[in-house]
Amino acid sequence: MKRLFYFIWLILSIETYSQSSQCFFKQTNTPINIYESETSTILFAVINQDSILENYYSVEILNSMSDRHLVRITCAASSSKALIEGWVEKRICNVWLWTMEQGDSINIYEGPTESCHYIKVDLTGCSNVAVPVLSISKDGWYYISIMNGDISLSGWTKNVCSNIYGSCEHGNPYSKKLHP
């Protein structure tokens, strides 16, 4: 009975944690610079993700400024506690575009609500499309930028997977089925 309790507690802890991860660092085997402030050039820390040992990080965005996010970084495999908090370049905080709910396309909205005008972006033939997170709303809308042919589109979507492994069975935990 005691083992069953611990097993259930472990599963619930992993599920709760996975929903708090908002993005990931796509780069592996290269240094990831952590700065002490949003404008500082002084490094607070340097971390590395190791693709061979699968040592990856989950990232929670706490605040955003023009070019950087204030983030809380934890080990993707263990949710016990934050490893570090600091400022990172926005361009390295990524999410996977999640097309499972709408076929091979996602909707990019002008604002963080379904009532806004949107553009349907066709991702047919594209797999594992990672895009930088420019901002996140409190209710789970991601402001992203994506190339659609020769055109750069920026807008809001909930069709993302924030897990570095790309194993989001239900995409963004905040999402619900959006316009077809």
Task: Summarize this structure as a short list of keywords or feature phrases.
about 180 residues, mainly beta, nine-stranded antiparallel β-sheet, globular, disordered N terminus, disordered C terminus
Largest sheet: 9 strands, antiparallel
Strand content: 35-45%
Looking at the structure, what is the overall shape? globular
Rg (CA only): 17 Å
H/E series: HEEEEEEEEEEEEE
Give the helix level as a range of percent. 10-25%
Characterization of this structure:
- With 180 residues, the chain is mainly beta.
- Helix content is 11%, strand content 41%.
- Strands 1, 4, 5, 6, 7, 10, 11, 12 and 13 form a nine-stranded antiparallel sheet that branches. A two-stranded antiparallel sheet has the order 2-3. The protein has a two-stranded antiparallel ribbon with strand order 8-9.
- Strand 8 (105-109) and strand 9 (118-122) form a beta hairpin.
- It starts with a helix and ends in a 19-residue tail after the last strand.
- Mean pLDDT is 79; it is low at 2-19 and 171-180.
Q: Secondary structure elements and their pairing?
A:
Elements: H1 2-20, E1 23-25, E2 31-35, E3 43-48, E4 57-64, E5 68-75, E6 84-89, E7 93-97, E8 105-109, E9 118-122, E10 130-136, E11 142-148, E12 151-157, E13 160-161
Antiparallel strand pairs: 1-4, 1-7, 2-3, 4-5, 5-6, 7-10, 7-13, 8-9, 10-11, 11-12
Give a concise summary.
The chain is mainly beta and 180 residues long. 11% of the residues lie in helices and 41% in strands. It is built from one helix and 13 strands; from the N terminus they run αβββββββββββββ.
